[in-house]
Design a protein that fits this description.
166 residues; alpha+beta; five-stranded mixed sheet; three-stranded antiparallel sheet
Length: 166
């Protein structure tokens, strides 16, 4: 089953309110938000991180979801799963864990080795937008349904707003 099929099956199973939008293949949040017509903050940007754990424990992987108008706070992301520090996972590992090319990773983890944390700022929108496992498909999903599916326990302050300079 493809990542897109997994996502839509999950959403259907939970009777979520969503719609699929097809568009040109774009993997950058700002560009795809303009094409879809959504506010940048509504874009659920997914990043796979490698997290160093304390006391020499093996590192863990984290799927961090932040609003499109924010950047990841690596230290807070690591702390959200009990780690010390984090950095981007190697692209090959990220693709192996998500089944997606970078830029198409959805805000859902279908691999037990990939913990999920979602920045609390995403709760303020009525609809979340995200690439749905493929660069040419996006989903608009009711925010309440998203958090009902992933659970409130996944919420953490893991992002920092991007400073806009004049």
């Amino acid at each position: 089953m493809t990542a897109f099929e997994q996502i839509t099956a999950l959403l259907d199973q939970h009777q979520a309110s969503y719609r699929v939008v097809e568009h040109e293949a774009v993997g950058q949040t700002g560009q795809i938000s303009q094409i879809r017509g959504n506010a940048l903050g509504q874009a659920a940007k997914a990043m796979v991180l490698e997290v160093s754990m304390p006391d020499g424990a093996p590192s863990r992987q984290l799927l961090a979801i932040v609003p499109g108008d924010c950047r990841i706070n690596f230290k807070n992301a690591a702390r959200a799963i009990g780690g010390k520090k984090s950095s981007f996972a190697p692209p090959e590992l990220a693709q192996a864990l998500t089944g997606c090319v970078m830029g198409a990773v959805p805000p859902f983890s279908f691999d037990d080795r990939l913990a999920l944390r979602v920045d609390t700022r995403l709760q303020q929108f009525g609809t979340l937008w995200f690439n749905a496992g493929e660069l040419e498909k996006s989903i608009a999903l009711a925010t309440d349904d998203y958090f009902r599916i992933v659970g409130e326990a996944c919420c953490a302050d893991i992002a920092s707003p991007i400073a806009i300079t004049a």
